[in-house]
Amino acid sequence: MNVSYLFLAPGFEEMEAIAVVDILRRGGLDVRTVSVGGGNEVTGAHQITIRADLSLEQIRPEEAECLIFPGGMPGAQHLSECEKLMTILQHHYDQERTVAAICAAPALVLSHLKTNRKLRVTCYPGFEKYLPDFEVVTDGVVVDGKMITGKGPGFAIPFGLAVLEQLRSAQVAGDVADGMLLL
Fold first, then answer.
1. 1-177 maps to which CATH number?
2. Is pTM beyond 0.90 here?
3. Under 8 Å CB-to-CB from 17, ≥6 apart: which residues?
């Protein structure tokens, strides 16, 4: 378990994907972008095209330390409609591994999870209705055990740092934040 996967579907929110990948790589994590539903080139919600490192068929879910889901529309919807990905997500969650989602993804993707308790999450305003079995709060970033959620694009950097802190340490996250002149 030494790789993290960040999933990209057409219409993903570019800031939430790129900022998080950048922060995690600065922190020394092996994070790979994964295209879902097409070729390796994925175009985001604001017409920025990213070349993913892998396709969904190429990943090794059993090696994943963390699964990361950026929001954006219709990107988050496309992620949620991928049955294979939702099966991988449920298995990963059941193994008590880290899951991170931001913006619309907590509502559209994480709502597929079958959990044994009410998870505390945040999401993009207006998407709370998709989370009737979750405790939805308005905080910018929420960490509940191995679940990390972010509210939207403006929280991409603090969300990425929270993921880094969860996977490595507060010291590593602080060092990355210092290097980015955030603190």
1. 3.40.50.880
2. yes
3. 6, 8, 33, 44, 50, 70
Band (pLDDT 50/70/90 cuts) for residue 165 is very high
User: Residue ranges of the domains in the chain?
Assistant: 1-177
* pLDDT one-digit tens code per residue, 104-163: 999 999 999 999 899 999 999 999 999 999 999 999 999 999 999 999 999 999 999 999
Which of 155, 150, 152, 113 has its CA nearest to residue 134?
Answer: 113
Closest by Cα among 70, 146, 68, 67 to 104: 70
Separation of alpha carbons 88 and 115, rounded Å: 15
DSSP states along the chain: --EEEEEE-TT--HHHHHHHHHHHHHTT--EEEEE-SSSSEEE-TTS-EEE-SEEGGG--GGGEEEEEE---TTHHHHHHT-HHHHHHHHHHHHTT-EEEEETTHHHHTGGG---SS--EE--STT-GGG-TTSEE---SEEEETTEEEE-SGGGHHHHHHHHHHHHT-HHHHHHHHHHTT--
Judge whether residue 37 has pLDDT over 90.
Answer: no
